[in-house]
Write a structure and sequence with these properties.
Blueprint (H helix, E strand, L loop, with lengths): L1 H16 L6 H4 L9 E4 L3 H14 L3 E5 L2 E11 L2 E13 L6 E25 L3 E21 L3 H19 L4
Antiparallel strand pairs: 1-5, 2-3, 3-4, 4-5, 5-6
Helix pairs in contact: 3-4
């Protein structure tokens, strides 16, 4: 008797959980408070320069313009996995209270070592070309995933270091 009641309840629960996953664009939350932006009491140029130095201090290779910075850092996770973080920072004037706002986003790409078989082609006069596997393989890193880093703590640490470099700029030289 208990089994007769339990089975339909479990089936109903399973049906609720296996429903369609909402499209990714419906999961986006456009709101004023964001992990990706912070206000700073400095010009956009000074803020982006502090962002450049913050990234450089952590081993990111950077390219910068007066109000934009890009950084890239590579990680060897293990023998077969390679990770890469690409960081983007844009600094704009804050029209409301002065200073600037820094917008940052980072993308993590994951690469895996994949083997691809090597073939040898042999031209045989009247028969044309014959391609034969020769038992060897080439290894290549192939991008297998790419995603925007959404961890708020990641950006909090970055913006904290950026603020450190802004304060360092304001300190009198000795």
């Amino acid at each position: 008797m208990r089994l007769a009641i339990l089975l339909p309840a479990l089936a109903a629960l399973a049906a609720c959980q296996s429903g369609p996953i909402p499209p990714i664009h419906e999961q986006e939350r456009f709101q004023a408070e964001s992990a990706y932006a912070r206000l700073f009491p400095a010009s956009p140029g000074a803020t982006c320069d502090a962002a450049r130095r913050a990234l450089l201090s952590q081993g990111y290779l950077t390219a910068s313009q007066s109000e934009a910075v890009e950084g890239r850092k590579k990680f060897q996770h293990d023998a077969a996995t390679h990770l890469e973080i690409e960081f983007h920072v844009v600094c704009a004037r804050n029209n409301v209270g002065g200073g600037s706002v820094a917008f940052a986003s980072a993308v993590q790409d994951r690469y895996a070592l994949k083997k691809s078989p090597t073939n040898a082609s042999v031209g045989v006069g009247a028969f044309g070309t014959v391609s034969l596997p020769i038992g060897a393989s080439d290894d290549a890193l192939v991008k297998v995933a790419s995603e925007t880093i959404a961890a708020e703590d990641f950006y909090t640490r970055f913006f904290g270091l950026l603020a450190h470099f802004l304060v360092e700029d304001e300190a009198p030289a000795q």
